[in-house]
Automatic annotation (TrEMBL):
This is Mutator family transposase. Signal peptide: none annotated. The keyword DNA-binding applies. Keywords: DNA recombination, DNA-binding, Transposable element, Transposition. Belongs to the transposase mutator family. Residues 50-71 are annotated as: Disordered. Residues 57-68 have a biased composition (Polar residues). PROSITE patterns: TRANSPOSASE_MUTATOR. Required for the transposition of the insertion element. The keyword GTP-binding does not apply. It comes from Lacimonas salitolerans. It comes from the Bacteria. Transmembrane segments: none annotated.
Length: 404
């Protein structure tokens, strides 16, 4: 549709300053209101079957019955619109539905601000400063509460039958306990899967007071109930009993300890001046060409550092069975398997969203914000690098399990 020059010239008569066009009482806002009212009038005409200004058919009792005032909230601020009515109240406008008070994706704006970590008070101030909108805390809460329905649907969705890799991790969030009214550090559990086609997919999130193997077993059983029948490789942190929880649900799964977690744990025992040297020597272990060479490097590490940091090498030996599986893969793709870098990236996105919150009033409030952070994480790209080479090796090593 093209608007003629003559119509534009007529509309712009008297527009001399920017605010005459774009201001709160400017042409653009008035034009939007008038167009909406015109469209609403056209809808009522279609509903009644006769034009405004004409007489209703003699046999028809329903007819126009004036207008009612409604104030809509949008990115242009508040828009006072006259909504046409009919006598028997059977008119259901599509342009502005009954009960609707917001337009221009205002719900999306509120959810976007909430996802960025803004509190209800911050969102109120932002909408007032930017759009001149006075929005009640109750409205913001109702809009964000709708996210919980999306979370429930997402959390119960069916999953793939097989995932070549699933990375498990937990982070801590401060949440107020409903019974004691004290703030507790609760664990947010996240499972990040890699599909057969090399797409990252967050399988779910769970909140509990403590990170423990018993809880992880319940997570494994939930994944099974949602359709997962096989996980080829599970990448985990150093939680004691976690491998047993995984293999109890998925007996054939290869469990790989996250080297990043193991190195970080090792460096916690070191003084600052030795950390760089210790990290370099640990890299010789997990960067070795084979498991045998890696074990020799661990022996050399222990000979060098046992006198100063006696607990590091034994920690690696206790986890050795879960440290070595990645040596069976090509060095070019080992990073996909032995490190939780992908889930660490997800955790950074989550922490960025929650860092402005001292604590959350409920588990549901934390769940809403964390889910929105996950949704943003998955929008930024889900492809795993080097996946073509990894897929070929998975197909060879796991055979029918990969192709099932």
């Amino acid at each position: 549709m093209t608007i003629s020059k003559e119509i534009l010239d007529e509309l712009l008569k008297g527009v001399e300053r920017p605010e005459d066009l774009l201001g709160d009482a400017g042409l653009m806002k008035e034009l939007k209101i008038k167009l909406m009212e015109r469209m609403l009038g056209a809808e009522l005409t279609a509903h009644l079957g006769y034009e405004d200004g004409e007489s209703a058919p003699p046999s028809q009792s329903n007819r126009r019955n004036g207008t009612s005032a409604k104030v809509l909230k949008g990115q242009d601020g508040e828009l006072p619109v006259a909504i046409p009515r009919d006598r028997d109240s059977s008119f259901e406008p599509e342009m502005v539905k009954k009960g609707q008070t917001r337009i221009d994706g205002m719900d999306d704006k509120i959810i976007g601000l909430y996802a960025a970590g803004l509190t209800v008070r911050d969102i109120q101030a932002h909408l007032l400063d930017l759009y001149g909108l006075k929005v009640s805390p109750d409205l913001i809460s109702r809009v964000t509460a709708a996210v919980l329905d999306e979370v429930r649907e997402w959390q119960s969705r069916a999953l793939d039958r097989m995932y070549p890799i699933v990375l498990f991790d937990a982070l801590r969030v401060k949440i107020r306990d409903a019974d004691s009214r004290t703030v507790k550090n609760k664990a947010v559990y996240v499972a990040l899967g890699v599909t057969r086609d090399g797409q990252r997919e967050v399988l779910g999130l769970w909140i509990a007071e403590n990170e423990g193997a018993k809880f992880w077993l319940s997570v494994m059983n939930e994944l099974k109930n949602r359709g997962v029948q096989d996980i080829l490789i599970a990448v985990v942190d150093g939680l004691k009993g976690f491998p047993d929880a995984i293999t109890a649900a998925f007996p054939d799964t290869m469990v790989q300890t996250c080297i990043v977690h193991l190195v970080r744990h090792s460096l916690n025992f070191c003084s600052w001046k030795d950390r760089k040297a210790v990290a370099a020597d640990l890299r010789r272990i997990y960067g070795a060409a084979t498991a045998d060479i890696a074990e020799a490097e661990l022996d050399a590490f222990e000979d060098k550092w046992a006198g100063k940091y006696a607990s590091i090498a034994p920690a690696w030996r206790r986890a050795w069975q879960e440290v070595t599986p990645f040596f069976g893969f090509d060095p070019a793709i080992r990073k996909i398997i032995y490190t939780t870098n992908a889930i660490e990236s997800l955790n950074r996105v989550i922490r960025k969203s929650i860092k402005t919150r001292g604590s959350f009033p409920t588990d549901e409030a934390a769940t809403k914000l964390i889910y929105l952070a996950i949704r943003n994480f998955e929008k930024d790209g889900r492809n795993v690098r080097e996946w073509f080479a990894a897929r070929n090796q998975f197909a060879i090593m796991f055979g029918e399990r990969f192709d099932a």
